[in-house]
Design a protein that fits this description.
The complex is a heterodimer of chains A (about 450) and B (about 650).
Chain A: H1 2-18, H2 22-44, H3 47-52, H4 54-71, E1 73-75, E2 78-84, E3 87-89, H5 91-107, H6 117-136, H7 140-144, H8 149-155, H9 160-178, H10 181-200, H11 203-226, H12 233-255, H13 259-284, H14 287-297, H15 308-318, H16 331-334, H17 346-378, H18 383-407, H19 425-443
Antiparallel strand pairs in A: 1-2, 2-3
Helix pairs in contact in A: 1-17, 2-19, 4-5, 4-6, 5-6, 5-18, 5-19, 8-18, 9-13, 10-11, 10-12, 10-13, 11-12, 12-13, 15-17, 17-18, 18-19
Chain B: H1 8-33, H2 36-45, E1 46-51, E2 58-59, E3 65-77, H3 87-94, H4 98-111, E4 117-123, H5 125-134, E5 141-150, H6 157-160, E6 163-165, H7 168-173, E7 182-184, H8 187-191, H9 193-196, E8 201-207, E9 213-216, E10 232-234, H10 238-247, E11 253-259, E12 264-271, H11 284-293, H12 302-305, H13 315-325, E13 334-342, E14 345-355, H14 357-362, H15 366-377, H16 385-398, H17 420-428, H18 452-463, E15 467-468, E16 474-477, E17 490-491, H19 500-508, E18 527-533, E19 541-548, E20 555-561, H20 567-584, H21 592-600
Parallel strand pairs in B: 2-10
Antiparallel strand pairs in B: 1-8, 2-3, 3-4, 3-5, 6-7, 8-9, 10-16, 11-12, 11-20, 13-14, 15-17, 18-19, 19-20
Helix pairs in contact in B: 10-20, 13-15
Classes of the chains: A mainly alpha (about 450), B alpha+beta (about 650).
Subcellular location (chain B): Cell membrane; Membrane
GO biological process, one term (chain B): proteolysis
GO molecular function (chain B): penicillin binding; peptidoglycan L,D-transpeptidase activity; serine-type D-Ala-D-Ala carboxypeptidase activity
Amino acid sequence: MGWLNIYAAVYNEDHQSIMDMTQRYGKQLIWILMASFIAITVLIIDSKFYVAFAYVFYAVVIVLLVAVLFFGKEVNGARAWFEIGGFALQPAELGKFVTNLAVAKYISQYNFKMHRFKSLAVLGMLIGIPALLIIAQNDTGSALVYAVFILVFYREGLSGMFLFWGFAAAVLFVLTLIWNEVRLVGFLIFASILAYGIVRQKMKEVVKIVVIFAAILGVVYLFSHMVRPGWSTAMILYVATGISIFIFIIYGIRKRIQPVFWVVLFFVSSLALSRSVSFVYEDVLVAHQRDRIDEVLGIRSDPLGVGYNVNQSKIAIGSGGVTGKGFLKGTQTKFNFVPEQSTDFIFCTVGEEWGFLGTSTVIILFMILLIRLLFLAERQRSRFSRVYGYGVAGILFFHFAINIGMTIGLVPVIGIPLPFFSYGGSSLWSFTFLLFIFLRLDASRMEILR
Amino acid sequence: MVDSNAKRTYLIAAIFLVVAVMYLIRLFTLQVVDTSYKLSATNNVVRRIVNYPARGLVYDRKGTLLVYNQAAYDVLVTPRELQPFDTLNFCNITGVTKEELKEQLQKAKDYSYFKPSVIIKQLSAQRYAILQEQLYKFSGFFVQTRTLREYPQKIASHVLGYVGEVNQQMIKKDPYYETGDYAGITGLEKSYEKELRGKKGVNYLMVDVHNRIKGSFQNGRYDTTAVIGENVVTSLDADLQRYGEKLMQGKAGSIVAIEPSTGEVLTLVSSPTYDPNLLVGRDRGEHYLALARDTLNPLFNRALMAQYPPGSTFKMVNALIGLQEGVLTPYTRYACHYGYTVGNYHMGCHHDTVFTLSGSIAESCNAYYAQEFRSILENPKYPDVRQAYDTWRKYVMSFGFGRTLGTDFPNELKGFVPSSNFYEKYVFKGSRWRALPIISLAIGQGELGITPLQLANYAATLANRGYYYIPHIVKKIQNENIPTRFTERHYTDIDTTQFPKIIEGMEEVLKPGGTAAMSRIPGITMCGKTGTAQNPHGADHSVFMAFAPADHPKIAISVYVENGVWGARYAAPIASLMIEKYLTDSISSGRKWLEKRMMEANLLEPKKPKKKAPAETETTVSSTTNKTPERDTVPPKEIAVKRDSLVIQEDTIN
């Protein structure tokens, strides 16, 4: 448990450093004390309890998530809070660990097979319901956390293709946004031909395809120049590609070469996906989300508007230098230049006051924690514990990656906290539950095979 | 429970590590490699508050105050602190319209809710007094003091210039300036901007994100105090300047008077002029526009920028060159038979006699100079006329013609002394060079363009018998010496021994029989020369240059009166009155009538076409003869000159 202590230490010090508002500092202390209490309680209770009541917890939290939509208090546009006395409770935070429990419980069923349609559907529902309810609260950031369960499923047998295609789709999404049409289609053609070449292992054929395609492109170009001078470059490219694909398919049928169809399918679906990106982007995403993505990709720069948070955050972190300005000496954070600095942008304080040494220490500590969690999860005898352990690691990783990524301008601004650092009782409790239930499970790993 | 998927742990761990490493690299570049963020952080927290110093004062040579500062008040608003207020009352006090106020408030809000912005510039002291009393009613507004120029004498607007807001170009050129700063735009205010402006002071204050002041930055270690601008004593004589402006009332033209022994400019009048106070304060833009649209072009500084032919005043230059080159002696005689005729070429004149050098100056004989100039160009010393011309041009330019003198006036123009290439291109066009086609240069006509300042400098050169000091307007700067170039003698290429030979003739100009005998001042020997500058657009311009007293000259002067026809008609009397005023401080009773006549003369009505000056480009010359004799000089050729309209070389504002 060595890492836990280090963790607690870092976390305490850091909180003092930003707390020029004693109120928040005081509150956070109470949260911490209560969290310790929760931790002890969690450790005392028998591990079977969590397994047995996994679905019950899940159900209770779902009810709370529904209830908050009607009875919750609105803060910053998100109706996500219950106010009880002076303290606010955010059920979405609790959703993470109960969903993790439920998923673990479902996967650990005796006859579970990942690639059955029913399993996938149930798992999809288990994570989909809380995610949708949280989106309904207008807190898309927290809902995105549930996407990380794909890593857990992967460990439990989900085909690697899901990860690969998910990644490919994400890359395509980004490329569509930052590249123009011609460049994108060109890239897809190049990738398709390359893929075909790799599959077929025949250099001659590839050269032939390239030559034919170039010839068709040339003819179409000349044709457009002579007959239809109004055509854009993209239009020319599309027509040429269409003709080429047609010829290619006939070639494939004649010679009965199967990869031809896969490559064409890859190309067409990629193209369709990238075309639909603009639809998703313009119509599904809300304006401020679009702006934040634009800002990160460098499509637009607006350091005083949309990019204000990130810009100020980068200034604060960047001004820290190697060793930082020293404890409590940060000017940027002390004078409130970085908005939300005690919650989502807590990492700025670390960066400004402790410099690169501080930030790298935090990142390395997180890595030790995460790798250690993976290691612990892997040594579990019960499938339930293992799945749960992966869930813990995945959720912590997602928070870590998104939160720090946004403060240094690598990820769009998504308002989720940095585990054990950010101010906020609900998230602290939630992470405490999350982590300590796993510790409890780990402690009793020798007891039974589940 | 070991399963085949156990290896997948490593891929997941690898994903974690890749992200962590990416972040570490990014943090390393942000925090260690890139220093720009550290600078931004300082800007973020520290707010610069600029203190504007008062500009230096300007005096004339006798200590009369010409320019001082008057307080002006900018009204600023911090939109966040605004509360509903009585707009009608506010508008009444400040004198802005409700629409203007609304627009300005919106602009301020668009700019920033937390930072103050100026909504009314340069409120007068009277309005400020009322506003100050009632300011408590207008939450969010406050007033900042600045200084504006004030001109108690209301004279010499062209010399003093004016002050205006800096434009983007000026900011780029000199990092001292920031948007909203004021700087000299023309005249003295521009030439001595560095001395007059002083130094802005800066206070660094710590502020938080809402711009609330938290105290001084590092106990004021980087603060600087504002330094008031240096005072400048000009060489102007305020009384003479005012007198000159009075004499030039109702006339377009200029007077430039120089003290020959120092090169100090005593008077520089460009008429019509305007009250320098017009270009100050809130209504400046409006006044500027009105002045710029005036067809008489009062903003145009004729003394520096109008380029007229020098007319007969130029004859001494040719005489001196002839003497220097050895083709002329004081006893050389040339005959005049109502002009100078060669073949079918005729240059008109009004004598039927034989002149020596001094007589030719006194009576301004065109024929004498036509023949003398021919002997310069056809001097057998040179292989051809063109080389003789180049030599001649070198002499001319050594008098300061055809080039800028290097004065401390901005916008000084070069004038025009055509190069031999110019004549080759437009006149000779490959044929053999001859003297006749360019013989009008003999009497200062043709393509020559001379500014009144150059003419005055020429008068000073003759007064000094061969050298000049670069004319300048500055006499003393508070803490500095005036530039050394103003204390060096500049000699012409003519030996100083040649000069006395022409002075006698210039004295005779003002004696009975001379062209300007009427302008004689009793008791003062004055040397002068009349001239008529050809004007293809209307009546010729009256020109006169002079210095006095003859032996130890204290003043050298040039006067141009546009459309004044002959030198003796307006320019000579005005010059003589200026000289008398300067030397004796009064006008003798016998000459009061002349003073009255000059002051009352109005050449601007009925409206004459706008004066034009020869421009360097697009000048075409045709060689036809003009046989109308006139009293002073007669144009030998009618010159069809396509001239550029005058270009106002003042930096436009905004």
